[in-house]
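BUG: 3D viewer hangs when loading the predicted structure for this chain

Environment: internal workstation, default settings.
Expected: structure renders.
Actual: progress bar stalls at 90%.

Input used:
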Amino acid sequence: MSTAEQSTTDLPLRVPAQSHVDGSWTALGGETFVVTNKADDSELAHVTDATPEDVDAAMEGAWEGFLEWRDTPARTRSDVLRRAWELVNERADELARLMSLEMGKALPDSVGEVTYANGFLREYSERATRIEGRHALHEGGTGRILTQKDPVGPCVFVTPWNFPLAMGTRKIAPALAAGCSVVIKPPQQTPLTMLALVGILLEAGVPPKAVTVVTTTNSREVTTALIEHPRTAKLSFTGSTPVGRNLAEQGGKALLRMSMELGGNAPFVVFDDADVEAALEGAKVAKFRNGGQACTSANRFLVHESVAEEFTTGLVEIANGLKLGPGTAEGTTLGPMIDDKAVDKVRELVQDAVDRGATVAAGGNDAADGRYYPGTVLTDLPADARILHEEVFGPVAPVVTFSTEEEAVRLANDTEYGLVAYAYTKDVARMLRVSRLLEVGMLGINTGLVSNPAAPFGGVKDSGFGREGGPEGLEEYLQSRYVAIPDAIG
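Structure tokens produced before the viewer hung:
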């Protein structure tokens, strides 16, 4: 397909070309790297390529920023986050277009991400003034117990490419609300949205040294240096489970507080009493939003045999109805994948399934065109197909049938991951049963979208630990201080 008309070097927002360190947009090491338009690989911008030697300046600046921001009144922190929310609202269209350019996602998905991401700025602007400890009498009557909540200190965030804005605000907003400073290392593929966001935060009133971006092509060594720096108090990572294991090992040696939002293998369960039309609408969101490049993406469709034909027919229609094209092109509902490596992984998993006897009901490798992979539905999958056990991270929906509720739960839990699951049923008792039996951190009942800024996001098993969103997300950036006070009254 022709994508030349989408080639552009005109960014919708002014994005600083350098990383923010020590109070100004300062070049680190003097080298830069190119960020490209994922639709056609044209050049979008040059950004600073930081080295491990730059980390000390970043973290020492973050420590100074922490001391200032920690002592800033909670109401001021709240007002600054609220102002940032307003600025993101004002520039929502430009941010969405920037994301579609550097990540490739269809513009409607980018618009939805801006709304979701901005919700965290509002959520934590409202929670910043509600950080409370407790007061109690000593059980022996000889004094009082006072606890107070303090910010943990400078936080290091390693964010992924698939949600360039939301994975930033989901971490940054609660940290700033708590009084922490933050150092963000965005991915090499999509740093521009993060740089734009930090520019907005600075404009809203966050002190320059309280928010720092480190862009780099040397992710491994720079991240290690950030984790091992003595000023680092907390690490939060969103990404794959293998990388998360390595970072958790490093963070454990440094005795850091950590939260890890890792991989998923989400089951999408359609029971015999489900509203099939509603399930199909949920499947469209859970599978094809963001081109399937989401940790919450439905990875396995487990469908009761009595409704399998109807559901599969509808799913094929949805897949065939997706319009491939550059993310910013009018009418596009499925943009290019992030890079060739991602396409190769999807092709490999689909081919493995076909080689083992699966049927391609829609899309498939033969319909792929370079970085554009079509909406795909697979049926007749054997239990040993890799795609049922590995995170596909693409627009491929494998459908497996089941006969009983017990079988559905067993199949759903047959994975080392436990981030999210989806279940469609009209039976309230069944809703309660599966909510207890499914081994996940989040469950969507009759919905294909669970993420909400006011709710805790996170998984169990190999999908990680810690929570982002809601009051639970704020607690990740607070530590308790106990003060013993002898009772001198009376």
